[in-house]
Amino acid sequence: MSKIAVLAGDGIGPEIIAEGLKVLHAVASKHSLTLEFTEALVGGAAYDATGHPLPPETLTLVQQSDAVFFGAVGGPKYDAIPDPNLRPERGALLPLRQKMGLYANLRPCVLYSSLAAACPLRPDLVEGGFDILVVRELTGGLYFGQPKLWEGDRAVDTCVYTREEITRIAHVAFKAAQKRDRRLLSVDKANVLETSRLWRETVTQVSQDYPHVALTHQLVDATAMDLVRRPQSFDVIVTENLFGDILSDEAAQLTGSLGMLPSASLGSGTFGLYEPSHGSAPDITGTGKANPLATILSAALLLRYSLGAEEAARDIESAVTHVLQGGFRTSDIMEDQNCNHVTCRQMGDLVAGAIMRDNDAPG
Ligand code: IPM
Ligand code: MG
Fold this sequence. Notes:
The structure is a single chain. The protein is of the alpha/beta class and 363 residues long. The chain has two domains: 1-108 and 291-363, 3-Layer(aba) Sandwich (Isopropylmalate Dehydrogenase); 120-254, Isopropylmalate Dehydrogenase (3-Layer(aba) Sandwich). 42% of the residues lie in helices and 21% in strands. The protein contains 13 helices and 14 strands. The chain has a ten-stranded mixed beta sheet with strand order 2-1-3-12-11-4-5-10-8-9, with helices on both faces. β11 and β12 (272-276) form a beta hairpin. α1 (13-30) packs across α11 (293-305), α1 (13-30) packs parallel to α13 and α11 (293-305) packs antiparallel against α12 (310-325). The longest helix has 18 residues, at 13-30. It is globular, with a radius of gyration of 20 Å. The two termini are 27 Å apart. The mean pLDDT is 96. It binds 3-isopropylmalic acid and magnesium ion.
C-alpha cells in the first residue's frame, strides 16, 4: 500500500486536486494499486485554521508518506501577512521542498499535437511538436541563501551554491538525458555570477561520467531567447533555482498554457512532491475555469517516480492525449470556437472516463 499525503492548499488548489484524485482513483482501480490518501492543511488555509502555513501535523504526515500530491498555495489575502516567513510560499512550499530534501524539480514541457494552435509561436516554428525537460535545482540559490533581509531602504538576497549541490542535480539531468535524446544544455550566467562559474565547471566535470550525452552551456538570457526562436532544438535543460523558475514558465506557455505543465520534485530516494507548475490563480477560483491537466499529469509523475507504476502513469498520459484529441478544452487552451469548452470538473470526468472505458474494452 502506498501512502499519499494530499495537500490541496488555496485558490484553485482544492478544485484541481479533486480532479487529480478522481483520475488517481480510476487508474488505481484499473491497475489494482492500493493507494491510501490522507488530506492535510497547507498554505493560507492552514494559516487561517492554525496560525501557521505548514502546521507540525502536516509535516509529520508528509514525513510518513510515500509521496505528496500538492495543489497550490497563496493568494492576495495572505500577501498581507506581515511576517514573510508565515506567508504560504515562504512558510509552507519552500520549507517543504527544503525539509524533504527535494532538490530536483522535473518539468516536462511537451507540445501535444492537438494543442499546436494554442502555442503562441508561428506554426512553422513548432511543426511536429517539441519535448523539453527542464531540470530545475530546487533547494539552493537565491531562494534559500542567507542572509535574506529587508532593512529600511536596503534589501539583501544571497545566492549560494556548493559543488555538492551542483553535482547532484547534474547527475539527475545527465541520467534523464541518457534516457532521452542524450543532449543536455546547462544554463547559467557565467559571464557575471561566481555561482554560475562554479556551476559550469562542476557540470563539465560531471559530464565525464556520461560520455554519451552531449553537453553544451548557454547563458540564461540567450536561452530565454532561443526558447521562443527554436524550441525544437532543446532536449534536457538543467539550471539553477531562479533561472529554472523563469524558464519553465516560458517553456510552459509554449505548450499552450501554464495550466498544462506538471512537475515532480525529488530527492535522493523515491519520495516526491507532485504539483502543477502554476499557482493558486485566485482570479478564477470557483469559476470552473481552472485547467486540471497539469495536476492530472503530475499524478502520472507521482505514479512513475514514487510508486514505480509506469503503466498506470502512461495510462493517465494517454487518456489526456485522447481527451485533447477529442477537442475538449478548458478556457485557457480554447484556441477556437470549434473546440468543446469544458469546466475543470468536466475535464477530470473526461480523463477518468477515458481511463475506465479503456478498462471495459475487450482484450
Ligand atoms: C513554482 C512557483 C514557486 C517557485 C512559488 C510559488 C514560490 O512559482 O513552483 O514555480 O517560485 O518555486
Ligand atoms: Mg514558478
